Amino acid sequence: MAAQLKANVALYDVVHINSLYQFPVDAAAHYCRKHLVPYILRPHGTLDPYLYRRHPLRKRFYELLVERRNLANAAAVHFTSDEEMDLARFAWIDLSGRRGAARNRTR
Predict the structure, then answer these.
(1) What's the first-to-final CA gap in the chain, in angstroms?
(2) pLDDT tens digits, 6-62
(3) pLDDT at residue 65, as a whole number
(4) What pLDDT is recorded for position 79?
(5) Which label site among 2, 23, 32, 81 has the fewest CB atoms less than 10 Å from its CB?
(6) Contact 88, 47 (CB under 8 A)
């Protein structure tokens, strides 16, 4: 997967990356930064304080090494609801400036 990202990410105008705390996410963000391709990160609730209680030391270590850079360099962070964005405010990320929430509407 990393080899395909390395070879092809420069062909895209923007990349939408889903979730956090996974190698494919890190590889995609890394190659987007390397090739100056903007990317949107969608955390899918992974910044919820309730979920953060599971393996907190492991997550904190990973954040310091990888996730802070991924989030700081994202063109946007896509939250699926205002509640998800509010819960993420309790995490360590800065939501000022270019980050926002988008709602998925159902009928």
Answers:
(1) 36
(2) 898 999 999 999 988 889 999 999 999 999 999 999 988 878 778 777 887 887 888
(3) 85
(4) 86
(5) 23
(6) yes
Distance CA 74, CA 42 (A): 10
Q: Dmax over Cα atoms in the chain, in whole Å?
A: 41
Q: For the range 68-75, what are the long-range contacts, defined as Cβ-Cβ under 8 Å and sequence gap of 24 or more?
A: 68/92, 68/93, 69/29, 70/17, 70/20, 70/25, 70/26, 70/29, 70/41, 71/20, 71/41, 73/29, 73/33, 73/39, 74/17, 74/29, 74/39, 74/40, 74/41, 74/99, 75/14, 75/38, 75/39, 75/40
- Spatial distance between the Cα atoms of 83 and 86, rounded to a whole number of angstroms: 5
